[in-house]
Design brief:
Distance between the termini: 28 Å
Low-confidence stretches: none
Bound molecules: NADP nicotinamide-adenine-dinucleotide phosphate, glyoxylic acid
Mean pLDDT: 97
Helix content: 25-40%
Structural class: alpha/beta
Number of helices: 9
CATH architecture of the largest domain: 3-Layer(aba) Sandwich
CATH topology of the largest domain: Rossmann fold
Radius of gyration: 21 Å
Largest sheet: 7 strands, parallel
Strand content: 15-25%
Order of helices and strands: EHEEEHEHHEHEEHEHEHEEH
Strand order of the largest sheet: 8-7-6-9-10-11-12
Amino acid sequence: MALLFKGDIDRGGSWERALARHAPELELRSWPEIGDPAGIDYALVWAPPPGLLAGLPNLKAIFSIGAGIDHLASDPELPPTVPVVRMVEPGLTTGMTEFVVMSVLYHHRFMLDYLAQQRARAWREISQIGPQERRVGVMGLGVLGQDAARRLLSFGFPVAGWSRSPKSLPGVTSFAGAEGLPAFLGQSDILVCLLPSTAETRGLLNAGTLAALPRGAAIVNSGRGDLIVESDLLAALDDGRIGGATLDVFAEEPLPAESPFWDHPRVVLTPHVASMTIPDSAAAAVVAQVRRFEAGQPLEHVVDMARGY
Ligand code: NAP
Ligand code: GLV
């Protein structure tokens, strides 16, 4: 049984070691040395060149190295009948929850203001409010959003979530669908965006929806860059309607040198590193799925490609 691996070059070695440790019986074919395409059963990939997967006639399943599958959906030749499985593994979930908690606390504790004061050598207290007065809204209550929401609750923040379908999570107020969006936004002092990029979510945060947030709200986007109309966010930051933003993802990556986000005083940015798939725990998850599938059981976390996630 052979698995094609195409990840990023830097971390290829860790993946090879992890896969060999968890499944010594699996023959690993690292792109571009793929050998006989007909001998490949599974693919574990990030941003494969368009057409690569279509050239594997006996492929049984495609595993995405990331939680997002937009890097696959953009391949016009993606084999339509081969199941696509998104990455769900504890290392990726924990990393995202760390990033979200860190970012929410950063805005809650006025760190953008204190950083500006530090640069101005100003020693000035800002009166702090308690977490119970800071409402956090998590957009996207999937695997990552739910874990982050649970952790945020433990700090005492009132937490609400927005998803396509209603959720019943202890302590989390659920809003769903287009009809639930205005009320959800209206009560999000800090908005965390953990949605996938799909035909329905692209451009969802625009001048109209940003205006529905409480004045001075902060935004944390660690979902995908194209969820936000960047020019609308910049305008809202410039006039103070949005008080600050932590941005990990952008419409164009790497972020172009001329982007106003780089030196905007109300923006903290990171280069798409909110969370990363950890080869060891992810290899264990993929190998468990392969074994389950080979034993005739269904795959978990299969993407509905028509829905886009
Ligand atoms: P997931 O489990 O598939 O959850 C997606 C959530 O989004 C679900 O709650 C879903 O609602 C909701 N959703 C999707 N379309 C919607 C719509 N049109 N309206 C309302 N809600 C909608 O995904 P995940 O594993 O949590 O990952 C989420 C995303 O995080 C990924 O797709 C990826 O883009 C991003 N990500 C970023 C990084 C990074 O480093 N920056 C790392 C990992 C992942 P339902 O529950 O009702 O279906
Ligand atoms: C990273 O962006 C992922 O989708 O896992």
